[in-house]
């Protein structure tokens, strides 16, 4: 949920008190009642409502012994900083680590790669709104990092994902299909990022370029 994902929940067993918890669903349902989670009755899922509440979860985790979660958050922070610094190798290596840490049963296409991207870059939600398949130009940009108003000093990002293809082709596709049109009103630095996964080597590659708009 810290990565922005929704989690299925069954609210039927909740005893409507703060002392009786038989399952994790009871705890999640209580958090909904307390306002720390948002419940979608149509999908039967819960999610963290906003980044302020997400930060409170991170703060709570820091005081516990959940070292794996804290390490994942710190790794995500370093990955985001590597992206901003246009460090191709560091981003590729960070993606390798994230893939090894995240349990994906079927990691075999760009969709599953996109899921890993969202989890690996969960820290980006502190600064950006991450949007998948954003309509722009002649097609859909795989992932866009749209900056919040308080962080316009950071670069926005248009990211294209490839599976068993040349990573330079991802950058070319962003340009050829004018995916940057999605950020036409943004006048700051803009990064184009291509990430590809090779199923033979089981390695990621990355290429990052910068465009300065409004100049």
Architecture overview:
With 215 residues, this protein is of the alpha+beta class. Helix content is 35%, strand content 24%. It contains six helices and eight strands, in the order E-H-E-E-H-H-H-H-E-E-E-H-E-E. The chain has helices at 24-34, 51-62, 67-84, 88-101, 110-120, 167-176; strands at residues 7-8, 38-40, 45-47, 128-135, 140-147, 156-163, 189-198, 203-212. The strands form two sheets. It has a five-stranded mixed beta sheet, sandwiched between helices. A three-stranded antiparallel beta sheet has the order 1-3-2, covered by helices on one side. Helix 3 (67-84) packs antiparallel against helix 4 (88-101) and helix 4 (88-101) packs across helix 5 (110-120). The model has no long low-confidence stretch (mean pLDDT 83).
Could you give the topology of this structure?
Elements: E1 7-8, H1 24-34, E2 38-40, E3 45-47, H2 51-62, H3 67-84, H4 88-101, H5 110-120, E4 128-135, E5 140-147, E6 156-163, H6 167-176, E7 189-198, E8 203-212
Parallel strand pairs: 6-7
Antiparallel strand pairs: 1-3, 2-3, 4-5, 5-6, 7-8
Helix pairs in contact: 3-4, 4-5
